[in-house]
Specification:
It contains 7 helices and 3 strands, in the order ααααβαββαα. It is mainly alpha-helical. A 3-stranded antiparallel β-sheet has the order 1-3-2. A hairpin with a 2-residue loop joins strand 2 and strand 3. The protein is globular and about 50 Å long.
Length: about 160
Amino acid sequence: MFKYVAVWLLVFLIYVLFAGSASLYTLATGALIAAILSALTARYIVVDERKVRDVKRLLILAYYFVKYMTVIEFKAHMDVVKRTFTGDIKPGIVRVPVGVKSKYARLLVALSITNTPGTVVVDEKNGYFYVNWIYVSTVDPAEAREAISREFEEYAYRIFE
């Protein structure tokens, strides 16, 4: 039962954050959508309830989403806007090593990279993400990891591993 509540809470928080409103309509709609998605997906998302019961991990996950939505996302948008107006782009695909092992952690890192403006994960092979980057400042995998995914991996590790 706890896994359904945990998924409901996570979906509800994400819905309200993306809606950007705390009106009664938004809260009611978010609660209904979260309930439906929780009922349909919780048994697939939460394989081991012991991982979800760890309140610390849930708090880290919530903090990550808030930080990602406000700080990281904003900086990336401003960088892309600047590059759009100045034409200062040097696109390319770089190989980025990924240190996290669990499938959920890797998924969180891949989605975070892809949702950040200026970067898209196009493939994953042998412990590497291949990332299409709007401004390739380095082709060295370790340096690319530092610039693109290190912070995402730190949170993914703390949440899922």
